[in-house]
Specification:
- It is built from 13 helices and 14 strands.
- It folds into two domains: 204 residues, 2-Layer Sandwich (Alpha-Beta Plaits), CATH 3.30.70.1290; 137 residues, Lipocalin.
- It is α+β, with helices and mostly antiparallel strands.
- Helix 1 runs antiparallel to helix 2.
Length: 446
């Protein structure tokens, strides 16, 4: 379903950047354009992907021929390997580009895009003997919930073209993955998206050859239009729980605006007695609510402290000098007792134990198996530091979804499983290994 969208601003991951004031701009017909979203700090959130767009200055071409697209994709390949990020889809058009990226632990989205676009600008300016900026301002991004939007976001990017067979799109790579007879141009043959494509295809109901192509071409027009509108207006996209989690993380990095603080102080000085009276009444009316809030905050803080301690233990365990010379070297045939900690917590909720088993290239969980989630194959990727990243997606008969992502090195394992029950808010559960054993009962430790 071809479209011609003009995605709006912005996104989120580490880097502290000042927000810009929202400004309404007049359109040619005299109406007011939507206000631009302020630039948010780019913080890393597990289970998130980044929809990234970059446009040329003055709508001049960014890619004039196949040599240009190959040059950009060569850079993508280089930095994908260097920064260990996932690229789920891309679309290189004449005057703009679209990328769907999941960052790793080695680089932020800002670092990735700076490396890509700055080096490509140098290449482009050198080849065409020009100077100055090639891209309009900086890139724009939207932070998107992976578990709920990964499949539809790849379709959105792949249909932002005049034809789904555009050689500058990863659509052909997806098509070739299901139909080996599909011919790929040289520049696409050198981009390895096998792991990412397998992860995306797990979300398809139909698994036959050509299923993804049908999914893209038969997309609901109203659904696509609604998604385009959301991406143009929002900086965060996902379930209410995911958006609340992201906003809470962002709030930690944005200090109060000085002007707003001065206004509050000025108002307080002029209306001191009124504020005291109103505040007293509010406290009397909501005393029990405040108590519950504080109790939940204390519980939340306690479990955050537990997570920080487990994280420190994991990092210490996988340090090279602390690794055992007889440490575990493969997951196959092992089972791991895990401490499972869900955040945010609710009153009365406690960490619980689970047993995760690896057999025949698949993973299963005793806790979730009892809830209808069967074992599924895992994909693995070894990072430069030797840590193995494994991932999988599991569905039950009710349509509930689990998205697993684990990090394993020797005798230590940690990770996050995102539990998305139909009609409910998704919940992230962190897990840390307590001990492991082989199927024959031989034991290891945390």
């Amino acid at each position: 379903m071809p479209r011609n969208l003009n995605p709006g601003t912005v996104g989120c991951l580490v880097f502290f950047e000042k927000s810009r004031k929202c400004q309404a701009q007049s359109l040619p017909d005299g109406s007011q354009a939507p206000k631009k979203m302020p630039r948010l700090p780019r913080i890393h959130i597990n289970g998130a992907i980044y929809y990234v767009t970059a446009k040329s200055t003055d709508q001049q071409p960014i890619f004039k021929d196949k040599a240009d697209t190959k040059a950009y994709l060569d850079l993508v390949k280089k930095y994908k390997e260097q920064h260990h990020f996932k690229l789920f889809s891309f679309n290189l058009l004449s005057d703009r580009l679209h990328l769907l990226i999941e960052t790793g632990e080695d680089a932020t989205i800002s670092e990735i895009m700076h490396d890509l676009n700055s080096l490509y600008t140098k290449y482009f300016n050198g080849r065409y003997e020009r100077h100055g900026h090639l891209f309009e301002s900086r890139f724009k991004s939207v932070l998107v919930e992976k578990a709920t939007h990964l499949l539809k976001m790849t379709r959105f990017i792949h249909t932002e073209i005049s034809s789904p067979n555009d050689p500058c799109s990863s659509f052909l790579i997806y098509k070739a993955s299901q139909n080996p007879s599909t011919e790929l141009p040289l520049e696409l043959k050198e981009i390895d998206l096998k792991a990412e494509i397998n992860e995306v295809l797990e979300f398809l109901i139909d698994k036959d050859h050509g299923a993804y192509e049908r999914y893209c071409l038969e997309g609901d027009a109203e659904e696509m239009k609604s998604l385009e509108k959301s991406l143009r207006r929002a900086s965060i996209l996902g379930s209410p729980y995911f958006m609340a989690q992201a906003k809470n993380r962002i709030a930690r990095y944005i200090p109060p605006q000085k002007e707003e603080v001065l206004k509050v102080r000025s108002f307080a000085k002029r209306n001191k007695s009124l504020l005291i009276m109103a505040g007293t009444a509010a406290l009397l009316a909501t005393g029990s609510s405040v108590y519950l809030y504080v109790s939940r905050q204390n519980l939340q803080t306690h479990f955050e402290t537990v997570l920080q301690r487990r994280e420190k233990e994991f990092k210490e365990k996988i340090r090279f000098e602390n690794r055992s010379p007889i440490a575990l070297t493969e997951l196959e045939g092992t089972q791991w007792q895990m401490e499972m900690i869900a955040l945010p917590t609710v009153e009365g909720e406690e960490p619980f134990k689970d047993m995760i088993s690896f057999k025949n290239g698949s993973v299963s969980s005793e806790y979730f198996n009892a809830r209808g989630f069967n074992s599924t194959p895992i994909t693995t990727q070894t990072q430069d530091n030797g840590v193995v990243v494994w991932q999988t997606v599991q569905l039950n008969m009710n349509g509930d979804r689990l998205s697993w992502r684990g990090l394993w090195s020797g005798d230590a394992m940690k990770g996050v499983v995102s539990f998305h029950a139909v009609g409910q808010k998704p919940k992230n559960i962190s897990f840390y290994s307590v001990e492991w054993s082989y199927a024959d009962g031989t034991h290891g430790t945390r």
